[in-house]
Write a structure and sequence with these properties.
Structural class: mainly alpha
Distance between the termini: 25 Å
Number of helices: 4
Shape: elongated
Strand content: under 5%
Length: 138
């Protein structure tokens, strides 16, 4: 009887994926803390910037859950979050560079993530790459 080989289970939360989950978790904590303090103490100064930081925080939290959870639902959640994050950092980054007066205070995504060492620009690309690399074969 021939032994049938199956492809190894590919998960998003093992190996380098664990590092990705930790980085997303760190950004979730950082963005949530930053947005919380900004909204609580000086919301009137730059409401758009602070609400965008809060949106970034939510995206990082949900992406962390999706990457850590694995499975079809977790994977879909992570793909959506990484895509929204990439669009957000590109849109907010471009807007903050082209119309700096509209952003009197920085957001997580301002200047393409300049305040965070441009990690917000690179992180969703790495996340989407990892999700594609660990996709289950058809």
């Amino acid at each position: 009887m021939a032994e049938q080989r199956t492809a190894p289970e590919r998960t998003t939360n093992t190996g380098p994926g664990r590092v990705l989950v930790v980085v997303y978790l760190l950004f979730a904590v950082a963005a949530t803390s930053r947005a919380g303090v900004q909204i609580a103490t000086k919301f009137h100064e730059a409401p758009l910037a602070y609400l965008l930081s809060a949106l970034a925080a939510v995206v990082y939290i949900v992406a962390t859950v999706g990457l850590a959870r694995d499975g079809a639902f977790g994977r879909r959640l992570a793909v959506i979050c990484c895509t929204v994050e990439l669009i957000g950092v590109l849109a907010v980054g471009a807007a903050s560079v082209l119309a700096p007066d509209a952003f009197p205070h920085e957001t997580v995504w301002s200047g393409f993530g300049r305040g965070y060492g441009y990690v917000p620009l690179v992180l969703p690309v790495i996340g989407l790459y990892w999700l594609r690399r660990t996709a289950r074969p058809a």
